[in-house]
Amino acid sequence: MLGNAEVDFILKRNPRSKRLYFYVDDIGLKVSVPLRTSDTLLNRELNRHSAWILRKMADWNAQRSDNLVWQHDTALRYLGNSIKLKLIPMQRETSAELVAEELMLPIADANDSRSIQSRVETWYRKAAHDWFQQRVTHFSGLHQVKVNRVCLSNAKTSWGNCSSDGIIRITWRLIQAPHHLVDYVIAHEVSHLKEMNHSKRFWQVVHSIYPDYVKARLELNKTYRRYLLI
Ligand SMILES: [Zn+2]
After folding, report:
1. Do 106 and 173 belong together in one domain?
2. The domain containing residue 79 runs over which residues?
3. Residues 14-55: tens digit of each pLDDT
4. Ligand 1 mean position, distance from CA 181 (Å)
5. What span, in angstroms and rounded, lies between the C-alpha atoms of 75 and 77?
6. For labelling, which of 46, 108, 123, 171 has a CA lying 20 to 30 Å from the CA of 188?
7. Pair 90, 142 in one domain
8. Is residue 1, in this structure, part of any structural domain at all?
9. Where would I find the H helices in the chain?
10. 109 C-alpha vs ligand 1 centroid, how far in Å?
11. How far is the CA of 190 from the centre of ligand 1 (A)?
């Protein structure tokens, strides 16, 4: 509880950290603390900074996708490029289609922003699934590992995960990121089929199919908010 609000947060215990840090972004509150930090101290600090935290969270909420205006010419992202939503007034609502840099969406009621959003999301999911499937095939071929299924998740807090039964889940939102970052996430998840951890060996496995992984990881950490707007 912070003030009167119930606030979830992600807690990270960082052995190298000497003090507590609070970060707020569109995913929510993250707290990084030194390894041995008592709950009492943590709660006291959270309360001490509660006004700041709540204000930051309110700022982020104001920019959330719920506030993205779903209308003709709304700018969206697709594989790192900016595309424009074009609403085509039409009774028969066939699927959206990307033509050059324009996403054509036949729609009966151009003022129904909910329906626009959900149909654009449907298009994103289909595009994401097709693209991710191809890239998984590519990277799993390089490692000669078998992926049983590629699934889409709706996550906003992680790009993907991989289970030992060969199922890779990736958030459809990642399709908004540039090719090379999508490739990094997929190479990372596919590499987990060889090493189910984040050990030094794991990163060597990643390196063998995606040599520039350090750069990509940094870039993704810096820019990820852009790909979570929707
Ligand atoms: Zn991982």
Report:
1. no
2. 68-123
3. 888 888 888 887 667 888 999 888 889 988 988 888 888 888
4. 14
5. 7
6. 123
7. no
8. no
9. 39-48, 50-62, 113-143, 179-191, 200-209, 213-223
10. 43
11. 9
